[in-house]
Amino acid sequence: MLGWHWLIEWQTPYEFHGHLIDKVLAEEKSSYQHIMLVEFKRFGKGLIIDGKVQSTLYDEHIYHELLVHPLLLSLDNPSNILILGGGEGATLREVLKHKSVRRVTMVDIDEKVINFAKKYLHEWHQGAFEDSRTKLIIGDGYKFVEETNEKYDAIILDLTDPIKDSTSYKLYTKEFYEKLKRILNNNGGIATQATSPSFSLEVYVTIYNTVKEVFKRASASYTYMASFDGLWGFVYGGVSPESLSKDEIDERIRQRIAGKLRYYDGYSHQISFSLPKYIRQEFERINKISTEKEPIYVPA
Amino acid sequence: MLGWHWLIEWQTPYEFHGHLIDKVLAEEKSSYQHIMLVEFKRFGKGLIIDGKVQSTLYDEHIYHELLVHPLLLSLDNPSNILILGGGEGATLREVLKHKSVRRVTMVDIDEKVINFAKKYLHEWHQGAFEDSRTKLIIGDGYKFVEETNEKYDAIILDLTDPIKDSTSYKLYTKEFYEKLKRILNNNGGIATQATSPSFSLEVYVTIYNTVKEVFKRASASYTYMASFDGLWGFVYGGVSPESLSKDEIDERIRQRIAGKLRYYDGYSHQISFSLPKYIRQEFERINKISTEKEPIYVPA
Amino acid sequence: MLGWHWLIEWQTPYEFHGHLIDKVLAEEKSSYQHIMLVEFKRFGKGLIIDGKVQSTLYDEHIYHELLVHPLLLSLDNPSNILILGGGEGATLREVLKHKSVRRVTMVDIDEKVINFAKKYLHEWHQGAFEDSRTKLIIGDGYKFVEETNEKYDAIILDLTDPIKDSTSYKLYTKEFYEKLKRILNNNGGIATQATSPSFSLEVYVTIYNTVKEVFKRASASYTYMASFDGLWGFVYGGVSPESLSKDEIDERIRQRIAGKLRYYDGYSHQISFSLPKYIRQEFERINKISTEKEPIYVPA
Amino acid sequence: MLGWHWLIEWQTPYEFHGHLIDKVLAEEKSSYQHIMLVEFKRFGKGLIIDGKVQSTLYDEHIYHELLVHPLLLSLDNPSNILILGGGEGATLREVLKHKSVRRVTMVDIDEKVINFAKKYLHEWHQGAFEDSRTKLIIGDGYKFVEETNEKYDAIILDLTDPIKDSTSYKLYTKEFYEKLKRILNNNGGIATQATSPSFSLEVYVTIYNTVKEVFKRASASYTYMASFDGLWGFVYGGVSPESLSKDEIDERIRQRIAGKLRYYDGYSHQISFSLPKYIRQEFERINKISTEKEPIYVPA
């Protein structure tokens, strides 16, 4: 029997990738998003938001470890952490592995996503929402950043891509990064997912440029994500993780992390910060930065 | 946002049709079949079995009325009816509209489908399973026909298509029709769904030929089914519904049917039995009949 | 090997149909359109314009015979005919079969399409472009109608669907039909393709309403077109073909047509003008007409 | 307008990737294969063989440079080279860049592919077929290897994947590698494409194991190939390219290669031989080797 129940993810209007769905496990529509948990034939359980594979048990650990640990291991004693987005709770899960962390504030706009995660995504958050250090806030991340009086050692942006007419594109601009800087402690840093070097290379580079413009120090990592059908990128600001050697990373993991990492170690660190030549060339070539007036979007 | 959650139905390995799914309402896997109830963007609620659109609220009434009424209105006083298949309960629903009917035995092999229908498909069966005239049997239709001691006035076959290596293909053969004849009262008749004149015209004609071979009198009707992406066919044996005029059909509906029909009336009757020229030509040309030794299959 | 070379035709943004391509036989891009001749696995040779199956050797004869003959056979002695569109030359081919026809003017905007047809589509036009009665004009049909001093017995519109932001949508409005009326002889009539009753029923009915508004007499026919994945409709103005009986049609074909028809005869005539009940109901319900100010479009 | 002309490549029966085709530039069917040159919207010109993207101007240089140079730069003075497959002529093009090379024998089974390449794929071979060192043989590579009396310094296998019931799967077995060893000079080596670590990781590892079994020394590299929708792997036998440092590679390129490389250099070398952790783990876990009796196949 030919496969018939498909997620067709459009990376651009001229590229689509079809993943066979074995079963729909849960589905909800909030006022913000269409949320669906499925069993994929290839990836096992996968979370789909608005038609995009958000994360799957097959490789979410690669994404979340690479978003969180290069930043936190580059900081001296990260204690007070802010996460924007990250509804599944997996970014939170990784942050909480750091022994130095005393408090994590997670701000997500969509209560339905959070309730969905609590109810169905235990394999993702693994109880992180119940950790006594976790403070969960339902609200608009942009507004939260403008209004909070607190200061953070690290801010992690686990957001949807900058899509035109969405609300998230503003969270990739110079103006927003400046707001972040104001609520960051001295020597603090940020990390953000940075879209796909395969499908939106210019966006990836522009996010890097914009972070660098504001934080002076910036680094970019990448990895292949099978469930995203291509490469995926991350950008870090205020820190220089790539200056840490393989052995330093392994040593810091040993000292500072409680629990196991599945992907990230000194070896994977080196791979992730060694960008392919044709990507490096684009870093040389493109000098665009994203502003509220001239924001960057993923192609749609 | 481009559509991303799709049923892709393969009519043949070289034709597929994609219908956008708005939401999955229920899903189950039995040992026989994968059953899914969805909300389609185009058709509203739809039942999908093993990747085939089985029936949708958009046009299931056309299918079920055309399967049932030409047969029952051609018979004198149909009282004891047998249905094989028809899990949604909509064929049953149509049969029960006939005032002359005293008893309907419905045999379906898949208890899970029946329970699914009872639980989720009220808009299809509309309570037909609870009618005191209904006798529901979970079991193999082929075996039931071989073993029953009862005689029926009408037998209605609402089965999946004759697919190679399935169990249903035997229920379209000469041998099986002969078994049906043995449990039919004098002047009784049968009706069967007969696959798509668009995608499997040879199968449609062969079913007609096979029914004619056994029952001597046979008729074929057809209609366009949007949710099946093409024409759909039906074959009747032992009766000659096409000999009834528009007015006779309207008169018999008035006298013999309790409740309303949405599609079938004298006018639709005439349309349905007026086969297009290129289909009639195939009836002239093809003289194949389906036997257990040389059965006919839909292309796959 | 699973099929890999596909035409995916989008009937609406939530319905697509995939037809396997065996080979691309010719392809051209004009300033107006993308033209492609392929060998389909299911339909044989097929012409694709801007991603829409325009006509295939499998069933183009049904479309073109039903567009042309109900109109011309309803007229007394059609002699001077105007065709707008119809680049393949198949509408022209059908018109030229009428012995009464002395002259056919065909106006098509896209010279590349015409040259493509002359070069590759002989099975469609069958030499019709070379007929001494044919007068071919490359130009804008709308303008031609405004500027011509001639009068015609019949005008046939074989146009692309009324798509938003296209130029063709204006050729389905009341204002345009009034222009047509001015260049029509007394007792003349028009025929137009009228989109799909399956995918754009409201447009089909609105075209009928608009034609009726202007020409007082209007009729609608339909047929199932496999290569269009659904039903297809036609509207005639100034004539009443449905009032002709089966026998009258057969008789007129015998007297007035040179050459063979493959689909259209008295029997097919009756079928084509017998609209299904649910379509008739929409004719009762919808009273919209299309104007330049409030035009009707197919969903896109 | 939604995209309508698609290559749908099936990586497995439960994963497909759609690439929009702008235009078909050339198409031929040989007795072995269906060959098509298209203009892709995303990748520019691309060669499709039997529905698989074979190579595109977007990234073919990555594939061909990584197949050829790690092997040839690991050898001392490679002079006499054998290529099996590689119809586009791009592997040949890369081999000819080595100043030490005196003679390249290329054996391809499909004359139509070669003629197609000569006629349409100049951007791939760039005249390599006309090089005086090139000796082109149309024939079965398997047989050639069994019958030749020559000895080679390097053998490069640029073959289609090991597909069940194809002829190519035998060219990935222990028995075949032993035949290769017999026609290899002392200190010679081989390189083979090794399928996708994303879609057929077990096959990739098994090819490595099999090469190692026969040649004792074996290495594996990989890269992300956008046009193949995932990672792609290569295996080298009889040599240890990964033991060469970044600087040694850069130095050898300078000394031994005439013309420019676009991707491969010391830096890219290091990246390509640094396999991700989860792939390394599979190298530990899987110890299967492929034999003619128990061959390995890609999933289909």
CATH A-level architecture of the largest domain in chain A: 3-Layer(aba) Sandwich
Question: What is the CATH first-level class name of the largest domain in chain A?
Answer: Alpha Beta
Whole-number count of domains of chain A: 2
**What share of residues are in beta strands of chain A?**
25-35%
Helix percentage of chain A: 25-40%
Cα end-to-end separation of chain A: 33 Å
Summing up helix and strand content along with how strands pair, one would put the structural category of chain A as alpha/beta
The count of DSSP E runs of length 2 or more, i.e. the number of strands of chain A, is 12
Please outline what is shown here:
Helices cover 31% and strands 30% of the residues of chain A. Chain A is of the alpha/beta class and 300 residues long. Chain A folds into two domains: 6-54, Spermidine Synthase, Chain: A, domain 2 (Roll), CATH 2.30.140.10; 60-285, Vaccinia Virus protein VP39 (Rossmann fold, 3-Layer(aba) Sandwich).
Keywords:
10 helices, homotetramer, 31% helix, 2 domains, seven-stranded mixed beta sheet, 300 residues, Spermidine Synthase, Chain: A, domain 2, five-stranded antiparallel beta sheet, alpha/beta, Rossmann fold
Write the layout of secondary structure elements.
4 copies of one chain form a homotetramer.
Chain A: E1 5-12, E2 15-29, E3 34-40, E4 44-49, E5 52-56, H1 60-74, E6 80-85, H2 90-95, E7 103-108, H3 111-120, H4 122-125, E8 134-138, H5 141-147, E9 152-158, H6 174-182, E10 184-193, H7 201-215, E11 218-225, E12 230-237, H8 246-256, H9 266-272, H10 277-285
Parallel strand pairs in A: 6-7, 6-9, 7-8, 9-10
Antiparallel strand pairs in A: 1-2, 2-3, 3-4, 4-5, 10-12, 11-12
